């Protein structure tokens, strides 16, 4: 079993994560945005995919034009001009240009164009088995109904992608994969809008996404030599700022997260494979076997070889 000091440290961190809203537990795989390629691989026998575009279009609304009801899929509206009101879960918001609002499956909503300055908006709908996973991964969780698109460049990019998406959708099934690719492009723009630069708006949400991004990077890159500077570059912030955010949210540093993940993978490899200790070290991103052994002992209270030798007589190989 875990060394008492290591167990206390890990349990303390685990408890903190269970209390955090919107941040995944370290032991769980980070939410990923499935790629069009993976969608193709996971397509069902009936030709369905895990994520697909339902429809797309544009509308210059008449004054007071309204819609109320529920949808069975996600529907994103991008407001290009004018204004209107959006109500969901008993809360009404006034929405103007350069904003997007989200309609989720099964939620009762109502939206209405302003009677003096009615909005012009563009929409696209999507669904599939991965729709909830994708929406949460880009930051469109249940607490996010409206996305401000503060950059004119982002707005222009989103509208351009939407135009291409509409062309693909209107050409039917033969443009299915192209339309799915455009969908991912549009979702990427919304994701970018939800992750402001340091010191910008929505700090609580950006902190959550920064931590998610750290775990995402670690999960994908633990097996190679990397640095905290590279993690910070991936997240899109400075090393100092990233360390401050991650420590504030988790009580750990990015380096702690990387080392913990490597050691947990090493533990699994020692228990489930016959790989030599040196190969386990290399598989977990350590080029120096001695450094790996020292780090392993710090986490688990014994050497990697001792852990493996005792695995048959103790819970986790160490007592």
Can you walk through the features of this model?
It is a single chain. With about 325 residues, the chain is of the alpha+beta class. It has two domains: about 150 residues, Homeodomain-like (Arc Repressor Mutant, subunit A, Orthogonal Bundle), CATH 1.10.10; about 160 residues, Regulatory protein AraC (Jelly Rolls). The protein has twelve helices and nine strands. Strands 1-8-3-6-9 form a five-stranded antiparallel beta sheet, with helices on one face. A four-stranded antiparallel beta sheet has the order 2-7-4-5, with no helix packed on it. Helix 6 packs across helix 7, helix 6 packs across helix 8 and helix 6 packs parallel to helix 9. It is elongated, with a radius of gyration of 24 Å.
Briefly summarize what is shown:
The chain is an alpha+beta fold. It folds into 2 domains: 1-30 and 204-319, Homeodomain-like (Arc Repressor Mutant, subunit A, Orthogonal Bundle); 36-193, Regulatory protein AraC (Jelly Rolls, Sandwich), CATH 2.60.120.
């Amino acid at each position: 079993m875990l060394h008492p000091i290591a167990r206390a440290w890990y349990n303390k961190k685990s408890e903190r994560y269970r209390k955090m809203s919107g941040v995944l537990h370290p032991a769980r795989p980070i939410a990923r945005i499935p790629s069009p390629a993976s969608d193709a691989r996971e397509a069902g026998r009936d030709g369905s995919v895990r994520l697909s575009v339902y429809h797309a279009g544009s509308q210059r609304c008449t004054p007071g034009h309204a819609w109320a009801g529920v949808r069975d899929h996600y529907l994103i509206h991008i407001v290009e001009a004018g204004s209107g009101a959006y109500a969901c879960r008993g809360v009404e918001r006034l929405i103007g240009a350069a904003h997007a609002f989200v309609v989720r499956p099964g939620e009762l909503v109502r939206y209405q164009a302003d009677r003096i300055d009615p909005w012009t908006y563009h929409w696209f709908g999507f669904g599939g088995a991965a729709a909830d996973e994708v929406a949460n991964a880009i930051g469109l969780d249940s607490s996010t109904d409206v996305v401000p698109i503060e950059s004119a460049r982002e707005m222009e990019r989103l509208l351009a992608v939407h135009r291409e998406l509409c062309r693909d959708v209107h050409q039917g099934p033969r443009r299915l994969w192209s339309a799915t690719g455009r969908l991912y492009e549009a979702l990427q723009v919304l994701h970018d809008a939800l992750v402001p630069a340091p010191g910008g708006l929505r700090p609580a949400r950006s902190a959550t996404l920064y931590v998610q991004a750290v775990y995402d990077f670690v999960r994908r890159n633990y097996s190679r030599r990397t640095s905290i500077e590279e993690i910070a570059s991936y997240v899109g912030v400075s090393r100092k700022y990233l360390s401050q955010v991650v420590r504030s949210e988790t009580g750990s540093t990015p380096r702690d997260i990387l080392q913990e993940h490597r050691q947990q993978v090493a533990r699994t490899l020692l228990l489930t494979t016959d790989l030599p200790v040196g190969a386990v070290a290399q598989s977990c991103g350590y080029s120096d076997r001695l450094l790996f052994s020292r780090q392993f002992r710090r986490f688990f209270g014994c050497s990697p070889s001792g852990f493996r030798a005792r695995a048959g007589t103790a819970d986790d190989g160490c007592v």
